[in-house]
Amino acid sequence: MHESARSAKRIAIIPGDGVGKEVIPEAVKILKAAAAKGGRRIALTEFDWGADRYLRDGMTLPSDAPEMFRRDFDAIILGAMGDPRVPGNQHAADILLGLRFKLDLYVNERPCVLFDQRLTPLKSRSEKDINFCVIRENTEGLYAGMGGFFKKGTADEIATQEDINTRKGVERIVRYAFEFARRRGYRRVCMSDKSNALTYGHDLWKRVFAEIRREFADIEWSHMYIDNLLMQMVRDPSQFQVIVTCNLFGDIASDVGAGLIGGLGLAPSGNIHPGQVSLFEPVHGSAPDIAGKNIANPMGAALAAGMMCGYIGWTAEAQAIEDAVRAAISEEKTTTDLGGSLGTRQVGDWLADRVASA
Ligand code: ATP
Questions:
Q1: In the chain, pLDDT over 70 holds for what percent of residues?
Q2: Domain of 129, in residue numbers
Q3: How far, in Å, CA of 299 to CA of 324, rounded?
Q4: Cα–Cα dist 30/32, whole Å
Q5: Which of 29, 30, 216, 305 has the fewest CB atoms within 10 Å, i.e. the most exposed one?
């Protein structure tokens, strides 16, 4: 995927549903500004997958989509999937989980970096105290979709949901967390599980973690049960640099992390298979309660585009987008969730201008 600097990077754009359709055009605007500034070529292809399309013709994820993305694209940017008109959000599961599983995007990288002291709800905490990344296993655990109903809808109903943990799956995510720590100059990795209660699946996590950490003698390690981890994240987030955990706990821990840095509107994520086509998206969902009002914060989507730039090797562009977000927050050019008074498009315009003129 690493082409010569002059050939265009091919990026798939899937705005999706709800606020995804508002924040992704802003992220694209900012991405284009960063690419133009750096003299980079970019080829964008938009896909209209989401609730509208599903309600129109039943299309969710075309069966050849994973192969097409692997063959024809360097990365994917996605907005959000979910719509109250689709019971159970079947289309969202097919598209988002389908891409995560079929492209084997086994890493979900969710950075939690405080850009401005005013944004954290924690007393006496500043930028130096909150700078960590949650590395969430992204293809197994309780999200594997194994289970079922027995006697559904009756008083005797039974529902099961299997927690899938494979040695291969745990090994690769734990190893990724240590390698990520090394690459980014972090010194500590904390593995979180619930092995005191989940005595099979999470026992595997504990044993594998003990094996893999020996390969990384230069990195400090720690272990915390998930309940303690969440409490410690709120009590003293400065003790964390890299947190590695299973699919469900990673989802929850990264939302707590988002709460520490200013809310969901500001949090980006990368769904990654190292060396292969990978998908970048804001952590937030489709937020139907605020959709269509030009009030959604586009910064999570912009930072996701920035993460994508880093992934495809455009480090200066990634930095430019992050710098623009920091500047917008510091100059209070923000949406209402961050205390500002601008709309989604106005923040997007400001960020794009900043990237272009920096
Ligand atoms: P999912 O199940 O996909 O995680 P969800 O319904 O749990 O979705 P979101 O759709 O992320 O959660 O919305 C949670 C709340 O966060 C929304 O009600 C909204 O107020 C807020 N929110 C989400 N995204 C944004 C955003 N970009 N800007 C401002 N507020 C947001």
A1: 98
A2: 106-272
A3: 10
A4: 5
A5: 216
pLDDT at 1 over 90: no
pLDDT of residue 4: 47
CA gap 55, 58 in Å, rounded: 6
Judge whether 78 lies within some domain.
yes
> Tokens representing 219?
């990195």
Dist CA 234 CA 254 (whole Å): 12
CA of 23, closest atom in ligand 1? 27
Examine residue 281 and state whether it is found in any structural domain, yes or no: no
- Mean pLDDT for the stretch of residues 207-211: 98
Report the pLDDT value the prediction gives residue 2, as an integer from 0 to 100: 47
Q: How many CB atoms lie within 10 A of CB 273?
A: 18
Percent of the chain with pLDDT over 90: 97
Alpha helices in the chain (DSSP H): 20-37, 51-57, 65-72, 90-92, 98-102, 167-184, 201-212, 226-235, 247-261, 299-311, 315-330, 344-357
32 and 22 inside one domain? yes
Say what the pLDDT of residue 7 is.
83
Task: Label residue 6 by pLDDT band (50, 70, 90).
Answer: low
CATH classification at residue 172? 3.40.718.10
Residues 112 and 179 in one domain: yes
Q: Which of 81, 261, 264 to mutate to test the pocket of ligand 1 (most atoms within 8 A of CB)?
A: 264
As for how many domains the chain has, the answer is 2
**C-alpha of residue 76 to centroid of ligand 1, in Å:** 21
The pTM score is 0.95
Spatial separation of the C-alpha atoms in residues 161 and 143, rounded to whole Å = 9
**Ligand 1 near 337 CB (within 6 A):** yes
